[in-house]
Specification:
19% strand, 40% helix, 1192 residues, 12-stranded mixed beta sheet
């Protein structure tokens, strides 16, 4: 339908974003709607159901294509590999509904300025706005540009000057009302879905519709016991869904408080007034007073400064200082005005303003940037409400599996119709029997049986302190073959301990001052820098802030206070922080230093700067940050020539190194007028601060366990590259004897194009205070063993960016052996995870939530070690803050995956056993009775389905994964062979029973209770009345088929219940073993007990003991052959690998293809080489992610 598009009918929504969609315009037609209505009535509601399952069909049937401008219905299609369709109604807003502007006309000054999207959306002269609402976000029709655009945010093109001029005094009440009507309320509403809605949604699931059909059919056949059992199972399933609803309740409570905040808003004419947060609109001017203010929206700080707790967003409850957006002459968008991170000016929704500090006698003002679901918190909530679908083949294979069963049922229906029509049965009976075949071939209990396995796994994870908000992802954990780890707080301890400082003067680096010596740090500029260059605040008498800053400040033995009356500096703000030494020595006055201004730290800039002033003294600027960055801002003469080698001495030992620098400033210039670029230039290098970051005790054993299980481990960190390499070596991520190759890529400069170089890093042994030669060397020679598997690539975020831009053809080659990624920004972490996914890896990401939210969401399995609110975006959260949860999760995932396969196989066999038996009996126009069905369905299969899944995970991680697909050859072969064995056994039993000498069609029972010989019974014309059965079902074929089928269901459960290597042995599942023993005991009791009342109630006939022994022999033979096939063929991994080699099969996964190619490439990896990009650049694109991994 989408191939022939009218002009303007098709467009892209959210182009380039993660949630990009195609949008198509359609217009409803009356006669089409009427035809669909008639079709719905005549199809008895089947047509609306089909339209519910296939939204695109609903639109195509009811509407005709038209331009988006004329459309009253839009069809949306996601642009990812899933191509999910949905449709939305185009709605209208009329501005005539406004109360405060009754005289609003098309030429009113408020709406004539078409610079802003709100005014472009107003259609003139009728003053109406067209809009659609998609995933909680409003999109209005831009009449000027002819497209739907997101509303609820300030325009991106606004410059800082424009923001100050347009919104610096607030909006008028008329502007507020217009924006309120068009943008909607500033609320993040998460509805708690009513139970009746959930019930309808569950019932409308295709499988529940089938269950409904099955239940109705069974009630019509008086098979009410199992019908009631299925209803009960469905009710339990829905109850579990309601139980899972607690997540939406938790989410509701998480955002509820945000919707009911009262905040001070400045209206242009009326001045400041308290307003309910739901009424805020983009452009409103907020007045922030006092402390502990919850932000109800995203806002740009334009005056004053704030200290904010962003724990909700970052996962770290560390106070962060926000600075105002200053007016600049540039007309560039405000986000692009400086290289600094624009987020330092934004107060994010859901965060808490701990302290608001006005500039001078003014107020702290902020302009509302985004409202509702457009905010950072709204985006987080939307990512939970509308998670990215999982491209896991198990679920697609499950649908194919069910379709195969439906196909089998169709064949059975045709067979049934032929047999019963030829037998002259009434048409009502024929239809009923034919429909019965469908409910037999497709087991209605399958969803419940599959759900129990995941519920048990979730419960076991909970006991280990791992919480899951997306249970379906547990199965995906079983396929993980690459896990990315954040370093700080994940592999290493969260806190950093000061180890020492290396001061520097004009002669170079001086002797290291070790904190372990117990000696006080000498007073001087280096000590002053450490005491003042931080973002710490004093809150309720306690110093709070970044742990690193806190440790650094404590090492100086200085104290922090708030400036009092005794501390006077011109232009100093109220609540200015003052730091002073406890013992006045040397150059620092007793009054201390006032921290006048901060340029905050950001991951992108890798530095922070403060401006300080002595009471009555000079003004200084101090900078601290990544050593390479700080050195680049210093005057070259002040940076020691041995800087790189000195730095490497410590980074190669795994220390965290921070550099410090300073410069003198003019005292008469206002601090607010100082540009960051001007302050951060020509600095004087002061020295290095060395901090120790120890590995967590659990890190090394866990990484060794993962590596021995052939699961790749990758480090993604924001820390220094050399430190990352050392931590990788110490943790075992890079084992002894393996080489690290440094990949450095540089952007194009004026004279040369972008370059990439490869250098081999040599491991050296270190001594704590050795000379400057004990650092990482770059080896010149190429090692003989520098082949695939024996080397690892290490690169920085900058290099990763350059490679992605200019050397994209090399990126997959680097990723195949890329292990260490340092100085990575949060965005780069997400991109790296996505690139690994494009290579068909199943990627896990484990982080502490600080800067990993994006990567945690992007990965197939995200594991957060933080219990902050940010962790709600991650499918898994571990209560234990170390990486021990990762192998636990993989083990449980593998066990759950194998359990799913066991359950599928068992359900397939159970349905096929019943199907074969019933079709054989249909040949004699007979069937199983209701109680016979009930015994098999409820007493056997349901109990097995509930208990078979109780096996725990194997405590050992084996070096291969379970099959990721239902249609893998071993699984298919297992199902087919067992079906054939069961078919053969049933046919043999069916034919043999008819050939027995005691078999007489008019005889109802052959019991040996009267010790009559078989031949005597054959000659006797009468049978004692008490052994007769009045049932229409009772026959020798029926009795034989029922016993064979029932006991075979128990035997198959034992054969299919897999233990090692992924689950604990079957005998450890005591409940399951007990159930099997009880079921087998009851079946054997029924088989050998000569109790006429029991036989009559089950519609069975007594047979000679010898025949019962024959039945046992047939079942035992079937069990022995089935078990032998499973153990020697199906579970024989060596055999399947040999078969693969014999047929020359190779995995189609991208990473496997690259590994094979690189293994045969003698020129890879290139060492001691530098390559340059072409002018055009090399274009390479990985195929869209879809795992083709077919591993046994």
């Amino acid at each position: 339908m989408g191939d022939h598009l009218e002009k303007g009918q098709h467009a892209l929504l959210n182009e380039g974003d993660e949630n990009e969609m195609e949008i198509f315009g359609y217009r409803t037609q009356g006669y089409r709607k009427a035809l669909c209505l008639i079709g719905s009535i005549f199809s008895l509601g089947i047509l609306p159901l089909v339209f519910y399952w296939r939204p695109a069909w609903h639109v195509w049937a009811n509407c005709v294509p038209c331009s988006l401008q004329e459309a009253d219905i839009v069809l949306l299609k996601t642009t990812d590999e899933f191509k999910v369709y949905s449709w939305k109604k185009v709605m209208w807003i009329s501005l005539s509904a406004l109360n405060r502007t009754p005289g609003l006309t098309p030429d009113h000054p408020l709406i004539t300025d078409e610079e802003y999207i709100i005014n472009r959306a107003i259609r003139k002269p009728d003053l109406k706005v067209r809009y659609i609402k998609v995933q909680k976000i409003r999109y209005v029709w831009n009449n000027l540009e002819g497209q739907f655009q997101k509303i609820g945010s300030l325009e991106d093109w606004l410059s800082s000057t424009k923001i100050h001029q347009k919104f610096g005094l607030g909006l008028t009440s008329e502007e507020q009302e217009i924006r309120r009507l068009i943008c909607g309320p500033n609320a993040i509403d998460v509805e708690i879905t009513p139970i009746w809605k959930l019930l309808i949604k569950e019932v409308l699931n295709p499988f529940y519709i089938f269950q409904l059909f099955s239940v109705c059919l069974w009630f019509s056949e008086d098979y009410k016991e199992y019908a009631l059992a299925i209803i009960l199972m469905s009710v339990i399933s829905i109850a579990l869904t309601v139980y899972d609803l607690r997540q939406s309740v938790k989410l509701h409570h998480l955002v509820e408080s945000h919707n009911s905040i009262t905040i001070s808003v400045c209206e242009r004419k009326a001045g400041a007034q308290d307003l309910e947060s739901r009424l805020l609109v983009p452009g409103d001017l907020l007045i922030l007073t006092g402390s502990r203010v919850q932000m109800p929206c995203d806002a740009i700080l334009i005056d004053g400064s704030c200290v904010v707790d962003e724990g909700m967003l970052t996962g770290e409850s560390i106070p962060i200082t926000k600075t105002p957006l200053s007016q600049m002459a540039s007309s560039a968008p405000w986000k692009m005005q400086t290289e600094a991170d624009p987020r330092r000016h934004i107060l994010f929704c859901g965060t808490e303003v701990i302290q608001a500090r006005a500039a001078g006698s003014g107020t702290v003002r902020a302009v509302v940037l985004q409202t509702g679901f457009n905010t950072a918190k709204g985006d987080l909530v939307r990512s939970i409400l509308y998670p990215k679908p999982m491209n896991f083949k198990l679920y697609r294979d499950a649908i194919r599996f069910l379709l195969c069963l439906v196909g089998t049922a169709t064949i059975g229906m045709i067979y049934t119709l032929c047999v019963y029509v030829l037998s002259g049965e009434p048409s009502e009976e024929v239809v009923r029997k034919a429909l019965d075949v469908v409910t037999i071939a497709v087991p209605p209990a399958l969803p419940a049986a599959l759900t129990t396995g995941i519920i048990y796994a979730q419960r076991r994870l909970k006991k280990k302190g791992i919480f899951c908000i997306s249970p379906q992802r547990i199965n995906v954990c079983g396929q993980l073959n690459l896990v990315c780890f954040d370093k700080t707080g994940t592999l290493t301890r969260g806190g950093l301990d000061p180890w020492g400082v290396v001061p520097c003067d004009q002669n170079g680096f001086q002797t290291v001052h070790s904190f372990a010596s117990g000696k006080a740090l000498p007073q001087g500029l280096l000590c002053t820098a450490m005491a003042s260059c931080h973002s710490l605040i004093l809150l309720d008498g306690t110093i709070q802030g970044d742990p690193l800053d806190l440790k650094m400040f404590e090492a100086t033995k200085w104290e922090m206070t708030i400036a009092g009356d005794d501390f006077h500096i011109k232009g100093m703000l109220a609540h200015t922080m003052v730091v002073r030494p406890t013992d006045t020595v040397g150059q620092v006055p007793a009054e201390g230093l006032a921290i006048l201004h901060q340029f905050p730290f950001s991951s992108a800039l890798q530095r922070m700067t403060v401006i300080v002033q002595e009471a009555g003294g000079g003004r200084l600027a101090f900078m601290k940050g990544a050593p390479e960055r700080v050195a680049s801002f210093c005057h070259p003469d002040t940076v020691p020539s041995s800087f790189i080698s000195e730095l490497q001495i410590y980074t190669t030992q795994g220390f965290r190194v921070i550099a410090l620098a300073y410069k003198k400033l003019e005292s008469d210039c206002p601090t607010t007028a100082l540009m960051r670029e001007k302050v951060e230039s020509d600095l004087i290098f002061l020295g290095l601060l060395i901090l120790e970051n120890r590995l967590k005790e659990e890190t090394k054993p866990v990484l060794e366990e993962l590596i021995s299980a052939r699961i790749r481990t990758v480090m993604i960190t924001g820390d220094n590259l050399q430190t990352a390499i050392t931590v990788a070596r110490k943790s075992g991520m890079v084992s002894e004897g393996q080489k690290v190759i440094l990949v450095e890529a540089n952007e194009a400069t004026g004279s040369s194009s972008a370059s990439i170089s490869w250098k081999l890093v040599e491991e050296k042994k270190y001594i704590p205070f050795g000379n400057q030669d004990t650092y990482i060397n770059i080896r010149e020679e190429v090692p003989d063993n520098g082949r695939e598997g024996t080397y690892h690539f290490a690169l920085s975020g900058k290099s990763f960016h350059v490679i992605s831009q200019h050397f994209s053809s090399l990126l997959p080659k680097i990723l195949i052996n890329g292990t260490i990624f340092a100085r990575m920004s949060p965005g780069q972490k997400s991109s790296l995870v996505e690139e690994f996914q494009k290579l068909d890896y199943f990627v896990g990401m484990c982080g502490d939530g600080a800067n990993d939210c994006g990567a945690l969401k992007m990965a197939h399995v995200g594991i957060s070690l933080s219990e902050q609110e940010a962790s709600v975006a991650s499918p898994f959260t571990s209560k234990t803050p170390n990486i021990e949860c990762v192998p636990h999760l993989i083990k449980e995932g593998r066990a759950a995956l194998v359990t799913s396969f066991c359950m599928f196989k068992y359900m397939a066999l159970y349905s096929m056993i019943q199907y074969v038996g019933v079709l054989l009996l249909y040949w004699e126009t007979n069937s199983l009775s209701n109680y016979q069905f009930l015994f098999q369905d409820l007493a056997i299969t349901t109990l097995i389905g509930v208990t078979m899944n109780l096996n725990g995970a194997n405590p050992k991680l084996v070096p291969f994964r379970p099959a990721g697909r239902l249609i893998s050859p071993p699984l298919l072969l297992s199902v087919i062979l067992n079906i054939l064995l069961s078919l053969a056994m049933h046919i043999v039993g069916f034919i043999l029973v008819q050939k027995q000498p005691w078999y007489l069609m008019e005889l109802h029972s052959v019991c040996t209770i009267r010790n009559e010989s078989i031949s005597a019974m054959n000659m006797s014309p009468n049978v004692p009345e008490k052994t007769r059965s009045n049932s229409t079902f009772a026959s020798f074929e029926n009795t034989t088929i029922w016993f064979l089928g029932t006991i075979n269901c128990i035997v198959v459960a034992l054969v299919f219940s897999k233990g090692k290597p992924f689950r604990q042995p079957t005998y450890t599942n005591y409940i399951f073993v007990l159930v099997l023993i009880l079921q087998m005991g009851i079946c054997l009791f029924i088989l050998f007990a000569d109790i006429p009342e029991l036989y009559r109630s089950l519609d069975l006939l007594c047979t000679p003991v010898l025949w019962r022994v024959y039945i046992l022999v047939m079942i035992s033979s079937n069990f022995v052959v089935s078990l032998a096939v499973e153990e020697t063929i199906i579970e024989n991994r060596a055999l399947w690998l040999a078969v693969k080699r014999c047929f020359g099969y190779h995995s189609k996964s991208q990473y496997r293809i690259w590994q094979r190619n690189l293994a045969n490439d003698s020129s890879w990896p290139p060492l001691n080489q530098t390559s340059y990009s072409d002018i055009q650049g090399v274009s390479y694109s990985n195929p869209v992610f879809e795992s083709n991994e077919e591993q046994l």
